[in-house]
UniProtKB/TrEMBL annotation, chain A:
It is an enzyme of class 3 (hydrolase). This is Penicillin-binding protein 2. It comes from Flavivirga jejuensis. Pfam families: PBP_dimer, Transpeptidase. PANTHER family: PEPTIDOGLYCAN D,D-TRANSPEPTIDASE (PTHR30627), PEPTIDOGLYCAN D,D-TRANSPEPTIDASE MRDA (PTHR30627:SF2).
From TrEMBL, chain B:
Keywords: Cell shape, Membrane, Transmembrane, Transmembrane helix. This is Rod shape-determining protein RodA. Pfam families: FTSW_RODA_SPOVE. It comes from the Bacteria. The chain crosses the membrane at residues 12-32, 52-70, 77-96, 148-178, 185-200, 229-250, 330-351, 363-390, 396-415. It is a multi-pass membrane protein. Its main location: membrane.
Length: 645, 425
């Protein structure tokens, strides 16, 4: 049996080794992934990010080179820190701090030592760089905004975070990605596809040549340029008019659904979010929780639509055949339902038909109309569901499903929505505020502008979108195919006539523009805020919707000015000016322009935060813009009219 | 067993084929591990793969020489060979060249020669000669001491040259002596010492002692021959002494870097920060080697396509760590193939050894198998992290002329002896 010892030992060791191999190579081994193999260096070749042009071919966003000083800590040799610091314009404390941070991150891997150096600093440093072993300069590409407008439209790019990387493994640490606006929606189009080189490293982290002779390497795919539907000139004008105000302006071309202008006020210069100061500026904007400059009011601001919503009720009533356009309703300076009363501005005993009802914005007329819609089948439950269905066919109450990065649903109630408040009985009077756009209905400016576009088109709309064209690509069908509302074409004419009369002799008679037939509707919406846990009424919002020209619509617009009081006071003026600007290209109503530029609502916005009692609406006084600022605004407007190029 | 007496087939071709399979596959891996990019020039002797090709070529000449010499020569001149070999080891103290801390090389022209590699074959011959001597009785203490001396002289000499790995190889002769009748308690003592030491270090000296007590008590009740009580008590006391001795030795006498090696091997270190530090320092090779093997998966990344091999992540990969190249590029399949080749070679030699009619040939064959086995066990075990880091080459596989030739001599002397057994009645 002595022969067996070595024999058994050999067999045992052989089996032991195979078991160990099984453990190492099968049980704990993972699929070989080049990206996770630290013997392979991945060098990315970033393509040019696509440019952004406006609808007239004006370049809005381009790229600029940026220079980062990179450090590989363990390769750093003793250096003249004094000279180095003065070249980088930092102090020694910062030098030591950054150096230690990089060293903690990894002594072997490159870290950013100083990001986004200016071209001038780069030029000086470049010549002396060879003196500083362990440092090198990495060129990157940043956005270069050719304009100061459209921060909310254009959006911005920023470094990806871990979440982005988890969602899309394409992104690596330090990659840039669209964070808002078209940069975010058209991220994949604009960014292109980065190229990648696999390089074999040795254990000292040196490159020793391409991996597999570069067979797996890819070349970068350039980002595509895009043209957006925004008219930069109109956008700039809109932003100027909205200076010192808060709110949103959306202008749509009804025939295409293209968004001509999208203003969210207050706004900011998009260049603030580029480069070295990006995070500082972003934090500043983000922390402004009162003015909320990052909040895109034209897309996300959900407001009660107010009187413009009366147009919708008129259309539904005509479609449901519960009124005729000649039928008259008497207004007793309001509308009495049950033991309650809804006030109206009409003189006592005024008899309104559809057109004059819209023209005078008669609450009694629309309360009557709304009740007729809901009570058509003697059952308000069926009535309101039917009503809700018609409203939704205009794109209200839901996301528009378009290429804007943010949005809000708004709210269009139906019977189910009211179940919680009115579980059993439900009468048309319960929700009568909806008649004048003040109850539970809520819309965003873009939804309202789209509703007006559908009216201008007499029954259909194109999904509002921001993309006009992409290099070598066709737009998706959803932007080129009309969407029909549930209202027949013939019912639009009386409503449009009413809107036309608003300008001729109604609530917007003072806003007429020579030679343009504008159809519009004012709105004044009560609004409440919770201040110190008390529900407090603030000055009304000023709302205006319009389109023009009447028979060949080129622009549909919705303007919301927070706390602007009545519709034609702020919003109407701004809408008229933008319409004139778009159609004629110049302004004849200089008086309106001056008034808007001269008046500020900042004092109005400050009231709730003053801590003192304040009065609203008719008891407020308008604040004038300071002379210097006013002159500056005037000059900016003038520059727009005489573009330097 | 019927053997073909035809002159051409009297050598054991199975052993020869296994030998060449290992040498050939080894060379492919040396090529991959030492290739530094660019075109492969097989005759470029500045690269290990070029040199090794030359060594392999010279091996053929060596084989012809070894097989041409009369089989009786090896037995007759074994003592002289042994003495010459020992002198070559002693000469190292005067003329030796220091490489990586070990004074194990003679530098002759541009070549270096490592006499300790050849000393293994010489010792195997000497041990075979001594044991097969009719006057030797392995059960007598005197002969045991004499045999131990033959083994301990070269072991001590290489140890003094700081070549710990080669010293341990001489432990292989235990298998030879045991086969030839060394009393069984040597085996029991050897195994017990190993188990007790590992238990004492891995767990605790107390636990090792308790285990020893349980085993001894169990043995007492199970065995039919009742050993005297005081004898058992003596063994138990020895075990306890050993357990605490080993533990104290580890705690108080070993220096920190030696403790680290053992604690890494027995996975005693739980602190991740310290483990990382180890991986950056003395365990760097081992860690990289394990990673390379691990990354190979089932199929491997393909010949010359291992990223860690190409990147030279494993230092000394073409010598002691050659198996990690197999692991990365040929995967589980390739590694198993190598392990199986070695097992087959060892079993074949063992089988042939048992068939020998002369005791000299049998003992020598056993020596060959044992020496290769210990190399195989320690090298592959080390590369896969099963055994503490001990630097010895993988026979026939690792880069190096001395090693290759020494194993060629070792094996082909045996093939020659085997081919001659028909004449030994």
């Amino acid at each position: 049996m002595r022969q067996l010892l070595l024999f058994i030992s050999i067999i045992f060791v052989g089996l032991l080794f195979i078991a160990r191999l099984f453990y190492l190579q099968i049980y704990t081994s993972t699929e070989h992934n080049l990206f996770e193999d630290n013997a392979i260096r991945k060098v990315f070749d970033y393509p040019k990010r696509g440019f952004v042009y406006d609808r007239n071919g004006t370049l809005l966003v381009a790229n600029q080179p940026s220079y980062d000083v990179m450090i590989i800590p363990r390769e750093v040799e003793p250096l003249d820190t004094l000279e180095f610091c003065s070249l980088l314009k930092i102090d020694k404390k910062k030098f030591i701090k950054t150096y230690n941070k990089a060293r903690r991150h990894s002594p072997r891997l490159p870290s950013v030592f100083l990001s986004h150096m200016s071209k001038e600093d780069y030029a000086v440093l470049q010549e002396k760089m060879r003196k500083f072993t362990g440092f090198y300069i990495q060129k990157r590409s940043l956005r270069h905004y050719q304009t100061t407008i459209g921060a909310n439209v254009l959006g911005n790019i920023g470094e990806v975070n871990t979440n982005d990387q988890k969602k899309d493994p394409y992104y690596r640490m330090g990659d840039l990605k669209g964070k808002q606006g078209v940069e975010a929606t058209y991220e994949k189009t604009l960014r292109g596809v980065k190229g990648i080189k696999f390089i074999q490293k040795d254990r000292f982290n040196r490159n020793i040549g391409p991996y597999k002779e570069g067979q797996l390497d890819t070349i970068p795919e350039q980002g595509k340029d895009i043209t957006i539907t925004i008219d930069a000139n109109l956008q700039a004008y809109g932003e100027l008019l909205m200076q010192n105000k808060r709110g949103g302006v959306i202008a749509i071309e009804p025939g295409t659904g293209e968004i001509l202008t999208m203003v969210a006020a207050p706004t900011y210069d998009p260049s603030l979010l580029v480069g070295r100061d990006r995070s500082k500026n972003f934090t500043k904007l983000y922390n402004d929780t009162i003015a909320k400059p990052l909040f895109n009011r034209s897309l996300k601001g959900v407001y009660e639509p107010g009187s413009p919503f009366k147009l919708m009720n008129a259309l539904i009533a005509l479609q449901e055949n519960v009124i005729s356009d000649t039928e008259k309703v008497t207004c007793y300076q309001g509308y009495k339902y049950g033991n309650r009363f809804m006030k109206c501005h009409c003189n006592y005993g005024t008899r309104n038909d559809l057109v004059s009802g819209i023209q005078r914005s008669c609450n009694a007329y629309f309360a009557t109309t709304y009740r007729k819609i809901l009570d058509k089948h003697d059952n308000a439950s069926i009535g309101i569901d039917n009503w809700s269905k018609h409203v939704k066919s205009f794109g209200l109450g839901n996301y528009l499903d378009n290429d804007l990065f943010v949005g809000a649903r708004g709210r269009v109630p139906n019977r189910a929505y009211y179940k919680r408040i009115y579980p059993k009985t439900f009468y048309s009077t319960y929700t009568i505020s909806n008649a004048i756009g003040q109850g539970e209905v809520a819309t965003t400016p873009i939804q309202l502008a789209n509703m007006i576009a559908a009216i201008a088109n007499r029954g259909y709309y194109y999904t509002p979108h921001i993309i006009k064209s992409i290099e070598n690509e066709t737009l998706p069908e959803k932007y080129t195919k009309p969407k029909y509302t549930s209202i027949d074409r013939e019912h639009f004419e009386p409503v449009i006539e009413g809107m036309f009369q608003v300008y001729k002799k109604g609530t917007a008679a003072s806003l007429q523009v020579k030679d343009i037939d504008i159809c519009g509707k004012t709105g004044t919406v009560e609004n409440f805020a919770i201040i110190d846990s008390l529900k407090t009424q603030l000055t009304d919002h000023s709302i205006f919707v319009a389109y023009a020209p009447k028979d060949n619509p080129k622009i549909a617009i919705a303007v919301f000015v927070e706390n602007g009081y009545w519709g034609s006071r702020f919003a109407g003026k701004i809408a008229s000016l933008l319409i004139e600007k778009h159609i004629k290209g110049y302004i004849t109503r200089k008086d309106l322009e001056d008034w808007i530029l001269r008046h500020s609502l900042e004092n109005e916005y400050a009231k709730p935060y003053s801590g003192e009692p304040f009065r609203i609406n008719e008891h407020t006084r308008l604040q004038l813009v300071e002379e210097a600022e006013y002159k500056q605004l005037k000059q900016q407007v003038k520059n727009l009219q005489n573009p330097i190029n | 067993m019927v053997r073909d007496t035809n002159k051409h087939f009297k050598f054991d071709w199975i052993t020869i084929i296994l030998f060449f399979l290992l040498v050939g596959f080894g060379w492919l891996n040396i090529l991959s591990a030492s290739h530094t990019g660019g075109d492969i020039n097989y005759f470029d002797f500045s690269h290990p793969y070029g040199k090794q090709l030359l060594f392999i070529f010279l091996t053929f000449i060596l084989i012809i020489l070894l097989l041409a010499i009369d089989a009786k020569f090896y037995e007759r001149f074994s003592s002289i060979i042994f003495i010459v070999s020992m002198l070559s080891l002693v000469g190292l103290f005067i003329f030796g060249k220091n490489v990586n801390g070990a004074t194990s090389w003679y530098a002759i022209g541009g070549m270096t020669l490592q006499p300790s590699e050849f000393a293994k074959a010489a010792t195997a011959l000497a041990v075979a000669k001594h044991i097969s001597d009719l006057n030797t009785n392995i059960n007598s203490l005197k002969d045991q001491i004499q045999t131990f001396l033959i083994i301990i002289i070269p072991a001590l000499l290489v140890l003094l040259q700081n070549d710990t790995g080669s010293t341990i190889v001489y432990g292989a002769f235990f298998f030879v002596l045991y086969r030839e009748g060394l009393p069984k308690y040597y085996l029991s003592i050897g195994i017990s010492v190993i188990i007790l030491s590992v238990l004492a270090l891995k767990f605790d000296a107390l636990i090792a002692s308790i285990v020893a007590a349980i085993v001894i008590t169990g043995y007492h009740f199970m065995s039919k021959k009742k050993a005297p009580f005081f004898q058992l008590l003596f063994v138990l006391l020895l075990s306890i002494l050993l357990s605490f001795g080993v533990k104290s030795f580890y705690d108080y006498i070993l220096r920190p870097h030696q403790q680290d090696r053992i604690s890494l091997w027995l996975r005693l270190e739980k602190d991740p920060v310290k483990l990382e530090a180890m991986k950056r320092t003395f365990a760097y090779n081992l860690n990289e080697s394990e990673k390379a093997i691990n990354s190979g998966g089932f199929n491997g990344k393909g010949f010359m396509e291992g990223t860690r091999t190409t990147g030279k992540f494993v230092p000394e990969q073409h010598t002691d760590y050659i198996f990690s190249t197999v692991g990365e590029e040929w995967g589980f399949l390739g590694c198993s193939f190598v392990v199986i080749l070695f097992v087959l070679l060892l079993l074949r030699i063992l089988h042939l050894a048992e068939l020998q009619k002369s005791q000299f040939s049998r003992v020598y064959g056993y020596g060959v198998a044992s020496i290769i086995f210990i190399h195989f066990l320690i090298n592959i075990g080390m590369v896969m992290g099963l055994i503490p880091t001990i630097g010895i080459p993988l026979p026939l596989f690792s880069y190096g002329g001395s090693g290759l030739w020494a194993f060629t001599i070792l094996i082909f002397i045996f093939i020659k002896l085997d081919s001659n057994k028909i004449n030994e009645w």
